[in-house]
Recover the amino acids of this structure.
């Protein structure tokens, strides 16, 4: 039998989770050209938790990630990330904070004039305090995590869509950030590649215990994450043992018309009586 | 097509001027903040400077040659053919060298910067750079501004020299003028104020080319069509600004040297 899941080995206590949220949205609103995208939303992401954000196209899912990073400023409300209010910070001080956060963009956003090595090493090279050998070691380590070590000298244009997403994940995790933000990491990919990406996200969650926000259109991906764990011994994602459902630190957030209509776990989601949610998950 | 109201147009214009001023200001203030990207500056200097050399050489040479050709006909009527050297050297050094080099480099590099940065914006690479904790104005804009200002200065000197050579060839081989006479009159007529005027202008022009190119690139919206629009706007705006600033810079420098 497989080893017990890591997430269950030392689950985060509820008090610890609520006491130290890494991201707090407090009554946040934003509008683009008179169209309200987020209308006074509030939620928290606990340390070590992965929260999947759902909603129809244009519901503000990616906007939440950009607000978290301070790439956008809200019209109203406050956003605390790792204890700092990003809505009050200057761009200069935000660069410091962003070094503790990794982001995987929707279309990967790899630098097309740089090789895979240079893309993954970008942040390490910017820090100017690591030797060439150390940078190379960490780039290799990060690429081996996504099983793409052989692409190190290739350019992004030479990679498939799925490989680009995996390189983007390697780039995001190379500095071992405290928070990871995934913007539709499986969007537009075939089911097999999607499963590979989901497995990498679960691996990052259960092995490194990184807090994450995950924007996705694919509910099945989030259900897989909520019902599976990463087994280190077999180096595979495995289903949770019977009765252990809901034990992994995984939450769901559903947006509708600029508001949050659901914020809870997989069990609460599956028993929700809200018609819109029922339709959404069916 | 929806028409923009005058109020919205005015607001957009003010916003654009403000954004441009902020970007231009930051491109300079970044010089006093770390990190400084010397490797990127060198790479850009190679792309902008060495890459623009062929068009600058050709433009300078033929401008000087045609200037000599046109003025020689007029000067010959008054028996003043010997003044070709003076006319070409003053014309090239104070005005045509800096302006035409600026316009050529604007056509080549403002468009290149706008399209490169614009493509990075629409593919979220600029956002990715910010997300990775790197300031795009430090990494991308400042090296381009510094390199363009630095290289345009030297490109203008090369253009001036090639213009004088072009004029000299026309004067010697078409109008039979003695080359020693041409070069000595060209050299002796140049005064400090002419050289100073001709070498100050490229500093302004280089700044305009790079900041306008980067501004349109960084503010590109709407996919590949938006990148195309940004590229065109960058060339038009930088060329018009060069001509505009040239007039005011000339007037200002004339006032300083008190000769008009």
């Amino acid at each position: 039998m497989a080893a017990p899941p890591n997430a269950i080995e030392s689950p985060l206590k509820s008090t610890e989770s609520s006491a130290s949220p890494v991201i707090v949205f407090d009554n946040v609103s934003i509008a683009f050209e008179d169209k309200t995208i987020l209308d006074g939303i509030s939620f928290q992401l606990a340390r070590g938790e992965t929260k999947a954000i759902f909603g129809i196209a244009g519901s503000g899912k990616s906007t939440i990630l950009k607000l978290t990073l301070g790439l956008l400023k809200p019209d109203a409300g406050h956003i605390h990330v790792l204890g700092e209010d990003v809505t009050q910070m200057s761009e200069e001080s935000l660069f410091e904070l962003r070094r503790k956060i990794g982001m995987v963009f929707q279309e990967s956003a790899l630098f097309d004039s740089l090789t895979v090595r240079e893309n993954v090493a970008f942040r390490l090279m910017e820090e100017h305090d690591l030797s060439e050998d150390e940078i190379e070691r960490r780039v290799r380590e990060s690429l081996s995590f996504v099983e793409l070590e052989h692409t190190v000298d290739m350019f992004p244009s030479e990679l498939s869509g799925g490989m680009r997403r995996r390189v983007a994940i390697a780039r995001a995790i190379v500095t071992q950030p405290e928070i990871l933000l995934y913007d539709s990491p499986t969007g537009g990919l075939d089911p097999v590649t999607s499963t590979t990406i989901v497995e990498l996200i679960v691996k990052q969650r259960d092995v490194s215990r990184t807090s994450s926000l995950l924007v996705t259109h694919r509910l099945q991906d989030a259900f897989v994450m909520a019902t599976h764990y990463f087994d280190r011994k077999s180096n595979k994602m495995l289903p949770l043992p019977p009765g252990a459902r809901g034990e992994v630190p995984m939450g769901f957030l559903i947006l509708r018309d600029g508001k949050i209509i659901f914020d809870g776990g997989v069990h609460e989601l599956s028993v929700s009586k809200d018609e819109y949610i029922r339709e959404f998950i069916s | 097509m929806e028409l923009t109201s005058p109020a919205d147009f005015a607001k957009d214009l003010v916003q654009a001027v403000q954004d441009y001023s902020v970007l231009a200001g930051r491109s300079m203030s970044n010089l006093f903040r770390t990190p400084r990207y010397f490797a990127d500056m060198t790479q850009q200097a190679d792309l902008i400077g060495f890459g623009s050399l062929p068009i600058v050489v050709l433009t300078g040479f033929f401008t000087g040659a045609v200037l000599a050709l046109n003025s020689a006909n007029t000067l010959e009527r008054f028996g003043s053919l010997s003044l070709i050297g003076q006319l070409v050297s003053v014309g090239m050094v104070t005005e045509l060298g800096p302006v035409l080099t600026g316009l050529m480099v604007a056509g080549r590099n403002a468009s290149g910067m706008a399209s490169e940065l614009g493509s990075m914006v629409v593919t979220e690479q600029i956002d990715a750079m910010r997300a990775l904790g790197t300031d795009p104005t430090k990494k991308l804009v400042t090296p381009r501004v510094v390199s363009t200002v630095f290289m345009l200065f030297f490109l203008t000197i090369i253009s001036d020299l090639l213009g004088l050579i072009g004029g000299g060839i026309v004067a010697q081989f078409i109008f039979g003028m003695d080359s020693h006479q041409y070069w000595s009159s060209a050299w002796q007529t140049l005064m400090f104020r002419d050289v100073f005027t001709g070498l100050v202008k490229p500093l302004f022009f280089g700044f305009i080319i790079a900041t306008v190119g980067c501004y349109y690139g960084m503010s590109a919206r709407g996919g590949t069509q938006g990148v195309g629009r940004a590229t065109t706007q960058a060339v038009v705006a930088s060329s018009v600004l060069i001509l505009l600033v040239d007039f005011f810079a000339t007037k200002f420098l004339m006032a300083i040297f008190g000769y008009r």
